[in-house]
Amino acid sequence: MDELQLKLCDIQGRLFELSAEKKYNSAAFVKAFMTSDTAKALDSEYNRMQWAGEEYLLEEIVSAAGDLLTADGEIYDTDILYWIGYIYRYWHYYSGEDSAKIYKQAPVETMKRNYMIFHTMDPVLAIEDLKEIHNQQ
């Protein structure tokens, strides 16, 4: 994992945190992001979106998602959201899988449920355990 990739993991973590500060329903936001064209752009080898900050990325998601993002429903703790965003991006760099495929393997509910166990683990171990959980279903 190079320095730029780790920086992009951090930006995605901060983006997920920002969604809570803006009071978006966490589950809806994460799903909207992970299945978005913005996430697809971040998955590519090089895309201008990789140089955008979390505020700009949030605007892109909100604009594309429209009514899917609401201020009602559960808003997760920012620690949980940061970890989810960070791990999803790390997972992409680790495996080469795109965001939509990653989300199918580990939807936001799975990530939230396993946060307490996995957030202190090395990201690769957490990802391998999340894949194992998916494969057992």
Describe this structure in words.
- The protein starts with a helix and ends with a helix.
- The model has no long low-confidence stretch (mean pLDDT 92).
- Helix 1 (3-21) runs antiparallel to helix 5.
- The relative contact order is 0.17.
- It is 71% helix and 0% strand.
- The longest helix is centred in the first third of the chain and has 19 residues, at 3-21.
- It is globular and about 35 Å long.
- With 137 residues, the chain is an all-alpha fold.
Approximate shape? globular
Strand content: under 5%
Task: Give average pLDDT, whole number.
Answer: 92
Count the E strands.
Answer: 0
Secondary-structure-based class equals: mainly alpha
Tally of helical runs: 8
Compressed to H and E, one letter per element, the order equals HHHHHHHH
Low-confidence stretches: none
Helix content: over 70%
What's this model, at a glance?
The protein has 137 residues and is mainly alpha-helical. 71% of the residues lie in helices and 0% in strands.
Note the topology.
Layout: H1 3-21, H2 26-34, H3 37-43, H4 54-65, H5 78-95, H6 99-105, H7 108-118, H8 123-136
Helix pairs in contact: 1-4, 1-5, 5-7, 5-8
List keywords for this structure.
globular, 137 residues, mainly alpha, 71% helix
